[in-house]
Write a structure and sequence with these properties.
By secondary structure, the chain is an alpha/beta fold. Helices cover 46% and strands 17% of the residues. The chain has helices spanning 2-11, 15-21, 29-37, 55-58, 71-75, 91-99, 113-126, 130-148, 151-154, 180-187, 205-211, 226-233, 242-245, 254-257, 264-283; strands at residues 24-27, 44-47, 61-62, 81-85, 103-107, 160-168, 171-175, 191-192, 200-203, 215-219, 249-252. The radius of gyration is 21 Å and the shape is globular. Mean pLDDT is 92; it is low at 1-18.
């Protein structure tokens, strides 16, 4: 009997004891948020500098940008696991961590709603939280469906949208295909005017004016106050568009509109609300 118990304990990692021994470094805001949403936040000992949600994550030790981790900084936390977004690195650091006995797992999922659900499932499996992951996926699906099935969502279909992540001397950097903003616009039946571009690229002034977006969104890390909104509306290309003439620019949380966050339904609702408000303003 004792042998059977020991064998089962080995096979299942004695889940209660294993949880108590977990020491997780979470790298990437999406990864951190999902770990906490799966009720494994108590085992997170440090995060990267982008991880500020939930509040408990914001209070943890920060190890710098997740693309630029240091071996010494991570090992100082005595972690058992490093769970990271796809771009976590550098690779040489991750190799050194693995050589030191740390289990390193990177999650490379497409920036789509299906990708979000897949990431939740994979992290849940890796942290022995499959039941929690299934519950979270169901909650996320229901929240998304609630937005998509709303009467307001029906009004935004066919609208032309643009998502801006930066505006500098080189021009406007926007979200093209294979990005979460593109996936969100697609879910709502909206047209991303930058969809011919791959990922995040510069878009020429001529292309912006010719595509003539109805509504524009901007990443909150780029700007979220009224001054930033007005500055983008005054951009020479945007000022000539339907959106620019009405200053129909809405900041969206970078965490939920660029990364795979379980709160993605909130961003979908914001897109719908802003687009409907713009349409109402145009009619008035």
């Amino acid at each position: 009997m004792q042998r059977i118990v020991l064998l089962l304990c080995t096979l299942w990692a004695c889940s209660t004891g294993a949880h108590e021994q977990l020491r997780i470094v979470a790298a990437g805001a999406s990864v951190t948020e999902i770990v906490f949403a799966l009720d494994r936040g108590d085992h997170v000992v440090a995060t990267d500098s982008t991880s500020y949600y939930p509040h408990a994550a914001a209070e943890l030790t920060k190890l710098g940008y997740f693309r630029q981790l240091s071996t010494e900084g991570v090992l100082a936390q005595n972690p058992t696991h490093v769970l990271g977004a796809a771009a976590t690195g550098p690779d040489a650091v991750l190799q050194q961590l693995e050589a030191a006995g740390v289990r390193v797992i990177k999650y490379n999922h497409p920036r789509t709603l299906d990708g979000l659900l897949g990431m939740i499932g994979d992290i849940g499996e890796d942290l022995d939280a499959t039941a929690n992951a299934n519950t979270l996926k169901l909650q996320v699906k229901r929240s998304i469906d609630t937005v998509l099935q709303s009467s307001a969502a029906a009004q935004v279909k066919g609208k032309k949208a643009l998502y801006v992540v930066a505006n500098n001397d080189r021009g406007l950097t926007v979200a093209g295909s294979h990005t979460l903003p593109d996936a969100l616009f697609s879910e709502l039946g909206m047209h991303n005017i930058a969809s011919s571009l791959n990922e995040y690229k510069l878009m020429s002034n001529e292309s912006v004016m010719q595509a003539n977006p109805d509504v524009i969104f901007m990443a909150s890390h780029f700007g979220s106050d009224q001054a930033a909104i007005e500055a983008l509306c005054a951009h020479p290309a945007i000022a000539m568009t339907h959106a620019g003439k009405q200053c129909a620019v809405t900041p969206l949380s970078s965490a939920t509109s660029l990364g795979l966050s379980p709160r993605v339904a909130d961003t979908l609702a914001q897109i719908v609300e802003a687009t409907v408000a713009t349409e109402t303003q145009q009619r008035d």
